Citrate synthase (Melipona quadrifasciata), 398 residues
Amino acid sequence: MMYGGMRGIKALIWEPSVLDPEEGIRFRGKSIPECQKLLPKAKGGEEPLPEGLFWLLITGDIPTEAQVKAISQEWASRSALPDHVVKTLNSLPKSIHPMTQFSAAITLLNSESEFVKAYTGGIHKSKYWEPAYEDTMNLIAKLPVVAATIYRNIYKGGKGAGSVDTSKDWSWNFANLLGYDNPQFTELLRLYLTIHSDHEGGNVSAHTTHLVGSALSDPYLSFAAGMNGLAGPLHGLANQEVLIWLEKLREKVGDSPSDEQLKEFIWNTLKSGQVVPGYGHAVLRKTDPRYTCQREFALKHLPDDKLFKLVSQIYKIVPPVLTETGKVKNPWPNVDAHSGVLLQYYGMKEMNYYTVLFGVSRALGVLASLVWSRALGLPIERPKSLSTDLLKKLVGAK
């Protein structure tokens, strides 16, 4: 287990969510279908508002519509960026990766940290959670503005979009800042930001945020560190790699391949030493419920889209092939097998940007947990490491 990346070692406390191998993620005990049913929605909308999920992650309770509206207004009122962050983002070359810009901007926002001010002023440790909460609220409020500024600068020539509307929800404002006015895209964003928010504490972005925060780094620095982990190809780039693989497939067999053509392409992928991106998961042993709810969204809003039809066909073909290899514990699709397809349909073609969207969402879970870490007084994380020689001696002695 030590040589396998500590996979399966139960060694972390994480309050907001737990990942069940059979049922998938549960946010404070609630499954994704339950959250879709119970959490408040925008007027005329069908998908849960991320503000409601954040309330659930922080408090453990399902919020009322009034409570969710209060969070929306609170985040809108805190959304303005300091001048030095705006100037820095506007001065960065377009060639710098969106995630690099995202991490840099979050780090720069550390200048606004209430936690740093309170700690420097001598706050008692029993109250650490209070400025950590203020930083969390401020950071989540500003993330759509940061992310949209990066998007507009890199892909839209720096041209501005709409401004923050205090009467609208967090996702509506994000979509508006990005320059999208399609109500269905806004609904998709609400769903996307909700389901990508948290996936217990062992994944790289969550664990990194927790680890850096355990040294009493403020939420800005802690979250920036987590985003640097999310930027890794084995973590946040997975949905991008799914689309790249799909493009290779389409080049080879077209948009409407036969099942046999698909099987041949999949087997060739595996025989070349590669994996089928978007399939399998370190913990899950059934179809990821995050995949399922995105599939339901697609069936409702884009049932005839060619790329969605291809993904649906792959969903039938890949699991039996992976099972046949005898080497795969989980042959079922995860969230990344579907999310990029939906973004492509609504016109967001810029794959390098997808991890930034993931990062905006992941803030809800990892920062909620960070507040609780400070409230519970969790200590600095410091596991013991061993050399291979010492490990051999210990094993030999037994």
Observations:
- DSSP finds 18 helices and three strands in the chain.
